[in-house]
Amino acid sequence: MKRVLPHPVLSVTLALLWLLLANRWTLGSLLMALILATLIPLLSAQWWPDRPQVRRPLALVGYILLVVRDVIVASFQVARIILFLPADRIRSAWITVPLDLTQPEAISLLAGTITMTPGTLTADLSSDGRALLVHALHAPDPKAIRDEIKTRYEARLKRIFA
Amino acid sequence: MTPVVEGLIAALLIMGGSFGLIGSFGLLKLRQPMQRLHAPTKATTIGVGAALFASALGLALLGHGIAWQEILVSVFLFLTAPLSALYLAKTHLLRSIDRRELPPSGTGAPWATLAQQGSQVSPSKN
Fold first, then answer.
1. Calpha distance A81→A75 (Å, rounded)
2. N or C end of chain B, less CB within 10 A?
3. Same domain membership, residue A94 and residue A35
4. Is residue A136 part of a domain?
């Protein structure tokens, strides 16, 4: 079983995605969904050495809602910076965010969250995978942004992933 | 469709368009490459999001049911936008940044993009 379906959650997600993309509930698209759900995890297995250990799937839903809300709120802040702050008064900064997360999937999610929430952008990961390089568009106080990333997002991800 | 909902859909479309415009204006106004990367990744996300929401709302009220494909587009947007931004940033780090500008990683290891640079650049130096 593990050899045919190395990543069951990925397979279910892919099948569902295909059915939604096809948008026709016929036997043909169901068959195609099953084929894709089997083939893609098998072919990409070498890039997924471990299964991500999601301990609390419900908390993950809550996290996604929190991020969507933050994206909306912070988009207005960035729009204000772009429209009203003179270019020579925008104080951009590089920020190092040390990581407590160790799972690659959790780190990817944190890096993606940082990029999607306006005002900050993940630029790189340290080669040992223990710190993120973040660029902030306007950061009069870089330490506050680092602390916010750690308490608001990383702490939640730590609870979600085992 | 009631006028109220039509007004809401119109407002969402205008909001989406405005954010797209602000993002493009940011590209013009901001001066450093890293700053410029902020404008399109953010403002555009919410711009496209608002347009998709308007579309989903319209379809639902016209009796076409839940617009799954609009939801899928936004999911794919959230999956791909950080990756394209990350790759632009890494290319910029590798090719044109003064590395003394960057803070240390604090773990003793170099930043991943720059750690690989040594092996990639040395042949072309000869």
1. 10
2. C
3. no
4. yes
Q: Which residues of B touch A20 (CB under 8 A)?
A: 68-69, 71-72
In the chain, the amino acid numbered B64 is: H
Write out chain B residues lying below 8 Å of A94, CB-based.
101-103
Q: For the complex shown, is ipTM > 0.90?
A: no
In a domain, A82, yes or no: yes
Domain housing A153: 57-160
Bridge partners of residue B111, in order along the sequence: A126
Find the chain A residues whose C-beta atoms sit closer than 8 A to any C-beta of B.
17, 20-21, 23, 71-72, 74-75, 78-79, 82-83, 87, 90, 92, 94-96, 98, 111-112, 115-116, 118-119, 121-128, 130-131, 133, 135, 137
Position of tokens 């169901």? A30
Assigned domain for A40 exists: yes
Total domain count for chain A? 2
Are A61 and A39 members of one domain? no
**Same domain for A65 and A24:** no
B90 CB near a chain A CB, below 8 Å? yes
Whether A62 and A43 map to the same domain: the answer is no
What's this model's pTM, rounded to 2 decimal places? Answer: 0.81
Inter-chain residue contact A82 with B29, CB threshold 8 Å: yes
First to last CA, chain B: 70
DSSP designation for A162: -
List chain B residues with CB under 8 Å of A139.
none
Interior CA angle at A73 toward A72 and A77, to 5°?
Answer: 115
**Three-state secondary structure call for residue A90:** coil
Contacts of B45 in chain A (CB under 8 A): 71, 75, 116
User: pLDDT tens digit string along B47-58?
Assistant: 888 888 888 888
Residue given tokens 């998709």 in the structure block? B52
| A70 and A123 part of one domain | yes
pLDDT in tens, B71-105: 888 888 888 888 888 888 888 888 877 777 788 88
